[in-house]
Amino acid sequence: MRVPRIRARARAFSYSLSGLKVAFGHERAFRQELLLAALLIPVALLFAHGFVEQAVHIGSVAAVLVTELLNSAVEAAVDRVSLEDHEYAKRAKDIASAAVLVSLLTCALVWILFLADRAL
User: Fold this and answer.
1) Would you say 60 and 111 are in contact if contact means Cβ atoms under 8 Å apart?
2) Is 68 designated active site?
3) How far apart are CA 42 and CA 118, in angstroms?
4) Which of 27, 33, 53, 68 is labelled catalytic?
């Protein structure tokens, strides 16, 4: 019984890796945010005081990546249905884009507060 579960989890993991590869290959915003993560995560690990502070900083960066992946998925699904302009398609894409904006602003706020605290 355990072998099929392991295979199913391995397949699910491979689908996830495939999704990351596709996002990296096709989504410029994801690549930019991944670069930001590559810069900010080591800073958090080196300069944040304690596990909780590190987790908050890394989590704020990870939230941006997750939100961008979901935004890209919404855009791809909407475009798959139709490339024609439609009120609902625009609404879905705009809301997903707004989610990315909120995650970016939240991440920026977390890091601004972190830097301000260090400057004091």
Assistant:
1) yes
2) yes
3) 16
4) 68
- At 64-85, the pLDDT tens digits run 999 999 999 999 999 999 888 9
CA angle at 43 for the pair 59 and 30, rounded to the nearest 5°: 55
Is the Cβ–Cβ distance between 104 and 61 less than 8 Å? no
- Rounded-to-integer distance, Cα 98 and Cα 114, Å: 24
Scanning the structure block, which residue is given the tokens 């997750």?
Answer: 66
User: Distances from the Cα of 18 to the Cαs of 72, 78, 120, in angstroms?
Assistant: 14, 20, 44
> What is the domain class of 27-119 according to CATH?
mainly alpha
Q: Are 68 and 107 in contact, with CB atoms under 8 Å apart?
A: no
Contact (CB, 8 A) for 65 and 33: yes
Q: What is the pLDDT of residues 73-120, one digit of tens each?
A: 999 999 999 888 999 999 999 999 999 999 999 999 999 999 898 887
